[in-house]
Hints:
- The protein is 79% helix and 0% strand.
- It is an all-alpha fold.
Amino acid sequence: MISLVVLTAAWGTIPLIVRTVELSTQQLVAMRLLLGALPLLVVLLSRGLPRLRASQWLRVIGLGALLAFHWVAFFWSLNTTTVAIALVLVYLAPVAMATLAPMVLKEPLRGRAAVALAVALTGVILVARPGEGATSEGVISGLLAAASFTGLVLAGKPIAQQIGPLRLATLETTAAAMLMIPWAVSAFPEAVDFWWQLIILGGLLTGLAGYVYWRSVAALPVATVAVLSYMEPASAVVWAALFLGETGDLITWFGVALVLVAGVAAGWQGREAVSVEQPVPG
């Protein structure tokens, strides 16, 4: 659970990186996936070729396609509407996944988790405070990003428990990278100028992060994962204050505080759940 908190806080640095990389949305997503897949493949293949049933291969490939679609839709929303509106739209996903988990995964939504989810969403709205600047293109792509994020978690959790988070993270990211190969090729030679940003974005915040994320999803209740997901936009405010001088106002920091409080509440539930869960395969 602590690893998920650290991960989502680290994901808050992504807007800082994206601001410095002058590539198109599709090229940026393609390079992120490619550089995220390569180190995972090295680790996985060092353990031998993965053995999956045909149905598992199909689900993993489908999740890879959904992952690529999610990131393209999210970055497209960021580019066609305001960042605030895009964030609030995409972060409707944790509410959707926690609401649907009882039906799809048979996981009960406890009262404390529901309250924590509402508090976290309120905090993000206070942080982003969407106002003018909405476009139909940006809103639609933001909602599609939220829907695909929800589908990823709900469809991915069972397969992560079956084949293990390392196999899922590797094969899913590889499948997504293969779908985006044309854009990865077109990113050169410009991508070379941003090599260190892309390595951080791909190798650390996509490859390693993907494994940590799926390990957390496999072990924790979806409602806990949903609440802790709000650490990402909240932490982005902190990173922006530290590195961009964007200090925000009292309302912004009150929103961050709400997310932190909600995260602590969800964390306690997560600890209780982990204590009774079976070990997750590697």
